[in-house]
Structure formats: C-alpha cells, structure tokens
Amino acid sequence: MKSIKYLLVGFVFGIVLTKSEAVSWYRIYEMFQFQSFHMYGIIMTAVATGLVGIKLIKFFKLKSSKGEIIVIAEKEKGSFRYWIGGLFFGLGWALVGACPGPIFILIGAGFYPVILVLIGALFGTFVYGIFKDNLPH
To answer: CB–CB of 20/39 below 8 Å?
Structure first.
C-alpha cells in the first residue's frame, strides 16, 4: 500500500515530462544543436527547484517519512570523475534522444522501439557493475 504514493509520483512525473515535451526526440535534438532554449529552460527550472528544495530542507531541518532528520552530505572535492560521467551520460542522451526517466515514459506511451534503448541502458549498468571496483572513484 505504501508503494502507491511512488506510483502516483511516477505518473505525475511522466505527465509533466510529456506535456513539457521533455521526452520529445526533436526537442532533445534542438538542445544539442543549440537551436532552442526549450530544454535548457526545463533543465534550469529543475536545477533552481532542486536548489531551493535543498536550502529549505537544510534551513527547516525537515524529516524523512521515517521521522529522521534529512542530512545532505557536503559536495566532495575533485570533479574529474563527474566530468567523465557527465560526458558519457550526455553522449548517450544525444545518441538515443532519451535519458533514463523518459525511456519508461516513451515505452508507456507506446513507442516500443525504445525498449532497445532500455535494454542498452540495463546492459551498460550491468557492465559498470562488473568493472566498478577497477574504476577510479
């Protein structure tokens, strides 16, 4: 019964991304070609919302659903690995036109060829799991 709230949040997330056209391959193509501000506006809104949310959580010392105070770790030093990870994420996003959230939304909307993208994402995650202990973290 507790899982229903997560399912509802997922549905709302899917509706918002669909209505904002964030799952549109054409919008993603425009973004990577620097032809439109649309996706950058969505991303900047998400970053601003996250920033305000984090500040509110820290300021009011909000508690989790289990009643524990939410502790957000400070940002660690060294960004090389984040640049590499972001590069791989961005290349994958540019090549297939979808990041992880929209993959499921597109499948749910009936774009079944995206199942191949999902299989590729799962395979990539599996390969990372095999090699993660040998990678510089």
So the answer is: no
What lies within 8 Å, CB to CB, of 45 at 6+ separation is none
DSSP letter assigned to residue 132: G
Instruction: For residue range 99-137, list pLDDT tens digits in order.
Output: 888 899 999 889 999 999 999 999 989 999 999 999 877
Helix (H) or strand (E) holding 71: none
d(CA 72, CA 89): 24
Radius of gyration of the chain (CA): 18
Question: What is the sign, positive or negative, of the torsion defined by CA atoms of 62, 68, 74, 79?
Answer: negative
Give dist(CA 137, CA 134) in Å, integer: 9
Using CA atoms, how far apart are residues 100 and 80, in angstroms rounded to an integer? 23
Structure-token pair, residue 110 = 């009936």
The secondary structure of residue 134, as a DSSP letter, is G
pTM for this predicted structure: 0.76
> What span, in angstroms and rounded, lies between the C-alpha atoms of 57 and 50?
10
